[in-house]
């Protein structure tokens, strides 16, 4: 048996273990084996490192959640995983196309920026806005709130926040994106 055939059998077995018993060890082995391949695939397709990382993260999340949908009679395990990655890529591209009004931290914290414009909020409103922002941050899930505090309030880069939290940079970006979207929706209400 060649190494590729053995790897395909192992990947299928790992998928079945994930689907049957939510085996985290199997998922970890699958992740270690598959994520680098997916990253190379995504880099070639997108030519954007952050989007490629996000595709890998979304793909691996969907593999965890939808492993029960894999059917070995319809194709190889890696083929199924690449299909999930392709769909994740299309979803990401559609999202970015429709979300041209991407929420930036500067949009939410105009008074906290270092260069203050004279046409921004008067000084007497600063404590009110700061209080409201703190309340919005406190309503977020703890992982998202930590990322918002680090990046938007403390001024850390995505990489620095990733290292401080011990999570992949794609996770930091996803948490920030979700948190800012939740905060924007709360402000719109």
TrEMBL record:
<feature type="domain" description="RNA polymerase sigma factor 70 region 4 type 2">
    <location>
        <begin position="131"/>
        <end position="183"/>
    </location>
</feature>
<dbReference type="Pfam" id="PF08281">
    <property type="entry name" value="Sigma70_r4_2"/>
</dbReference>
<dbReference type="InterPro" id="IPR036388">
    <property type="entry name" value="WH-like_DNA-bd_sf"/>
</dbReference>
<keyword id="KW-0238">DNA-binding</keyword>
<feature type="domain" description="RNA polymerase sigma-70 region 2">
    <location>
        <begin position="30"/>
        <end position="97"/>
    </location>
</feature>
<dbReference type="GO" id="GO:0016987">
    <property type="term" value="F:sigma factor activity"/>
</dbReference>
<protein>
    <recommendedName>
        <fullName>RNA polymerase sigma factor</fullName>
    </recommendedName>
</protein>
<dbReference type="InterPro" id="IPR013324">
    <property type="entry name" value="RNA_pol_sigma_r3/r4-like"/>
</dbReference>
<dbReference type="GO" id="GO:0006352">
    <property type="term" value="P:DNA-templated transcription initiation"/>
</dbReference>
<dbReference type="InterPro" id="IPR013249">
    <property type="entry name" value="RNA_pol_sigma70_r4_t2"/>
</dbReference>
<comment type="similarity">
    <text>Belongs to the sigma-70 factor family. ECF subfamily.</text>
</comment>
<keyword id="KW-0805">Transcription regulation</keyword>
<dbReference type="InterPro" id="IPR000838">
    <property type="entry name" value="RNA_pol_sigma70_ECF_CS"/>
</dbReference>
<dbReference type="Pfam" id="PF04542">
    <property type="entry name" value="Sigma70_r2"/>
</dbReference>
<dbReference type="InterPro" id="IPR039425">
    <property type="entry name" value="RNA_pol_sigma-70-like"/>
</dbReference>
<dbReference type="GO" id="GO:0016779">
    <property type="term" value="F:nucleotidyltransferase activity"/>
</dbReference>
<dbReference type="InterPro" id="IPR013325">
    <property type="entry name" value="RNA_pol_sigma_r2"/>
</dbReference>
<dbReference type="GO" id="GO:0003677">
    <property type="term" value="F:DNA binding"/>
</dbReference>
<dbReference type="InterPro" id="IPR014284">
    <property type="entry name" value="RNA_pol_sigma-70_dom"/>
</dbReference>
<dbReference type="InterPro" id="IPR007627">
    <property type="entry name" value="RNA_pol_sigma70_r2"/>
</dbReference>
<keyword id="KW-0804">Transcription</keyword>
<keyword id="KW-0731">Sigma factor</keyword>
<keyword id="KW-0808">Transferase</keyword>
<keyword id="KW-0548">Nucleotidyltransferase</keyword>
């Amino acid at each position: 048996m060649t190494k590729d055939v053995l790897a395909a059998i192992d990947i299928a077995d790992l998928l079945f273990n994930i689907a049957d018993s939510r085996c985290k060890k199997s998922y970890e082995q699958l992740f270690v084996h598959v994520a680098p391949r997916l990253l190379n695939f995504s880099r070639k397709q997108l030519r954007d490192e952050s989007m490629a990382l996000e595709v890998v993260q979304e793909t691996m999340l969907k593999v965890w959640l939808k492993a029960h949908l894999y059917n070995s009679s319809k194709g190889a395990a890696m083929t199924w995983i690449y299909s999930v990655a392709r769909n994740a890529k299309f979803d990401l591209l559609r999202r970015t196309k429709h979300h041209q009004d991407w929420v930036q931290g500067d949009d939410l914290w105009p008074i906290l920026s270092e260069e203050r414009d004279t046409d921004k909020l008067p000084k007497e409103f600063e404590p009110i806005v700061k209080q409201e922002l703190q309340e919005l941050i406190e309503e977020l899930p703890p992982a998202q709130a930590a990322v918002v505090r680090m990046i938007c309030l403390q001024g850390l880069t995505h990489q620095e926040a990733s290292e401080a939290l011990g999570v992949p940079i794609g996770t930091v970006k996803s948490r920030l994106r979700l948190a800012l979207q939740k905060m924007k929706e709360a402000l719109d209400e």
